[in-house]
Amino acid sequence: MEISYLCAPFLEMRGNMKKKLDFTIPFAGLKLGHHSYEFEVDDAFFEDLDYSLVKKGNVAVSIDLEKKETMLILQFDLTGSVEVECNLCTDPMDQSVNASYPLIYKFGLEDLEDDSIIVIHPDSYQIDVSHPIYEFLTLALPLRTVHAEGQCNQEMLDTLNKYLSSPTDESEKNDQIDPRWSVLKNLN
Questions:
Q1: Of 59, 75, 138, 160, which has the highest C-beta tally within 10 A?
Q2: C-alpha angle with apex 158: 153 to 159, nearest 5 degrees?
Q3: In this structure, is residue 6 part of a structural domain?
Q4: Which of 97, 60, 84 is nearest to 144 (CA)?
Q5: Helix or strand or coil: residue 92?
Q6: Has residue 46 been placed in a domain?
Q7: Cα angle at 35 between 32 and 39, to 5 degrees?
Q8: What's the gap between Cα 128 and its chain centre?
Q9: Structural domain tally of the chain?
Q10: In terms of Cα–Cα distance, which of 45, 30, 105, 52 is closest to 75?
């Protein structure tokens, strides 16, 4: 009983490492040229990310890796859908994802300021693509996600409208200008 209790943290850590290894590409033994990889991003991928706006999804990730002597050039193609919150009613909604992004891994020891180039140690033998996949998924989402017309939660919309000021109130406020500032109108 004590042995399994003591091993539990190790087994849990090993389980997390297995998830991490699911998105690694070992490139050390590859020949120069193009190589293809396929990954499936599902709900378990997003569960490990506490800071993620996306909690569920099903996205197929295709990676074309071109190995050169001094760098790895990766082309990420993402296709599928993720569940995000509607920016208007906050109910969950499906958002389709269809995007393509390049990323370069350069062998070296220097630091670069370029976001599309990652410098890796010359002795590296594999790369973890889970973080770039998450970043590219986030970039593929539109700035504003809203349900189609008529599909938003009407109860939430009614509550929002109750607390929002009406456009007529705003126009009345704009019409009433402080007399100290009205002199500035004549400067044009």
A1: 59
A2: 100
A3: no
A4: 84
A5: strand
A6: yes
A7: 145
A8: 16
A9: 1
A10: 105
Q: What is the bridge-based pairing of β-strands 117-120 and 92-107? A: parallel
In a domain, 111, yes or no: yes
Domain that holds residue 152: 23-170
44, two tokens: 């378990």
Calpha distance 102→112 (Å, rounded): 17
Per-residue model confidence as pLDDT tens for the chain (188 residues): 333 333 333 333 334 434 444 899 999 989 999 999 999 999 988 887 777 888 899 999 999 999 999 999 999 999 999 999 998 888 999 999 999 999 999 999 988 888 889 999 999 999 999 999 999 999 999 999 888 888 888 888 888 888 886 655 555 555 677 777 777 777 76
Q: Is 48 a member of any domain?
A: yes
- Write the DSSP string, 55-78: -EEEEEEEEEEEE-SSEEEEEEEE
